[in-house]
Amino acid sequence: MQRSADTEKSALHPKPAGLVLQYGTAGFRTNAKNLDHVMFRMGLLATLRSKNTKATIGVMVTASHNPEEDNGVKLIDPMGEMVAMVWEGYATQLANAEQDDLLPALKDIIKREAINMTQEANVFVGRDTRSSGACLSQAVLDGVSTLDGHSKDYGLVTTPQLHYMVCCQNTQGQYGEATVEGYYRKLSQAFIRLTKNVPNRTDDQKHLCVDGANGIGALKVREMERHLERELQISLFNDGSSGKLNHQCGADFVKVQQKAPTGVEMTVGERCCSFDGDADRIVYYYSSSAGRFHLLDGDKIATLISTFLKELLTQAGLDLKMAVVQTAYANGSSTQYLENTMKVIMKCTKTGVKHLHHAAQEFDIGVYFESNGHGTVLFSKTAEQKIKQLAEDSTSSDEKKRAALLLQNTINVINQTVGDSISDMLLIEAILAIKGMTVQQWDAIYSDLPNRQLKVRVSNPRVIDTTDAERRAVSPAGLQEAIDSLVKKYRQARSFVRPSGTEDVVRVYAEAETQESADALAHEVSLAVYRLAGGVGDEPKPLH
Ligand code: NG1
Ligand code: ZN
């Protein structure tokens, strides 16, 4: 951005004066009409990051589970992970610079990171199905070309697909081929290898209802289907042909409302799942004969996957350290079950995928899931090597070899870069097939404690400061004491509060022995927040 022509280009993507946005838990996210300048500037920033890392960087245009009118942008680092924390700071700085301050802001980043501007840059761009996506991703591409970076526009892809492409590109194809077809081939071949030899699998067992949230996941499931050779038979609902994105459907709706999405024809006992708007989350569910809705969220998914992996490790005789990483939102029953019955190493981190991802990297095998269904499994290089060696060892027993081969194909079905609805779906379907398990049997592994999530409006949510992976509040004064004494009133109760990283609210979580208790506790804690942390608007009302 030295030349006046470049300044002119940036003037084509002007910033509305005074608008302030924050690179939050999941990047920038707001109404699409306020994002053109942010996109252009993220194109500039991704180009700098690419020069800085000498690697390809990704820019995904999406607002995930939020309404169609919104949009957002996330930056992807070289190995397919979320962008490094300091660069989140640069992103905020750059997005908020007034028009005249843009050049100095860029120069500041270049200086601080000692970026060699003659270094080549390469940026991958993708977008979800939002109507604003085409224009906004063009703004990103304009930003990249302004700094003479190369770019590749993948067009409509899921968020995890773009993460995958970035990782493939930067590992020179070792992780896979950096094409959407390559992604389908790698995942579906692994899935077919996992399920093909499972005896007596009926068509009924191969059947799954998928709610595509009227988003990109639906399009991509359709494209992938022909690679699955009918080993998985999908009935796709909310495919975007008529309904509105994320409206009354999708993983977030199902998890938060604890009810079935509209538009899905569920028969009793049938296995169903919902993706979110950019296909990086998944939850499962079914309805029982009594008409009751049963949700299998990220905690149940982590339990199924880690149990399966632990059994395989035992059969293979491999001594690998496996852990499950959760957040404070994990249902207490899941933590209890994994820790005490399964004897798995448990970790709790702050909310936000990057925290879970980093914690999971510390183990040979790290299974991480947020309760909302975002998660994946990470395998260390050592783990992958040991598994490979065993699979190729001609002296090992049949049982060990079988376990090692299953582990190898499990690794290949997983998108290790980030949570991925499609990859997680294939993994879960394969595990259920191999274990000969119904969705009801999976659900019965443990029973969720009833819980409730509420939001409280306060003038500044940041007055709440937390510690211990967000499970305790250190400020404002008296709040934690108030929560502690409310929790004592109920059996098996737990509650915590934290400022949201994506909305201007305080989130309240409560769980207890009964739904009535969880609801009452959540309400009472909301009142404490309202009174002690500067509530605005009407006082929170009881739920019943
Ligand atoms: P916030 O708004 O910080 O609670 C929400 C989710 C996170 C994560 C991010 C990013 C809950 C309680 N919180 O964050 O888990 O997924 O959005 O999308 O589900
Ligand atoms: Zn998402």
In a nutshell, what does this entry contain?
Helices cover 40% and strands 18% of the residues. It has 544 residues and is an alpha/beta fold. The N and C termini lie far apart (59 Å).
Write a structural description.
- α8 (216-225) links the parallel β6 (207-211) and β7 (233-237).
- The longest helix is centred in the middle third of the chain and has 19 residues, at 298-316.
- The strands form five sheets. The protein has a five-stranded mixed sheet with strand order 1-3-2-4-5, with helices on both faces.
- The protein has four domains: 1-156, 3-Layer(aba) Sandwich (Alpha-D-Glucose-1,6-Bisphosphate, Chain A, domain 3), CATH 3.40.120.10; 182-295, 3-Layer(aba) Sandwich (Alpha-D-Glucose-1,6-Bisphosphate, Chain A, domain 3), CATH 3.40.120; 299-419, 3-Layer(aba) Sandwich (Alpha-D-Glucose-1,6-Bisphosphate, Chain A, domain 3); 451-533, TATA-Binding Protein (2-Layer Sandwich), CATH 3.30.310.50.
- The chain contains 18 helices and 19 strands.
- With 544 residues, the protein is of the alpha/beta class.
- The mean pLDDT is 96.
- It is globular.
- The protein binds 2-acetamido-2-deoxy-1-O-phosphono-alpha-D-galactopyranose and zinc ion.
- 2-acetamido-2-deoxy-1-O-phosphono-alpha-D-galactopyranose (NG1) binds next to loops.
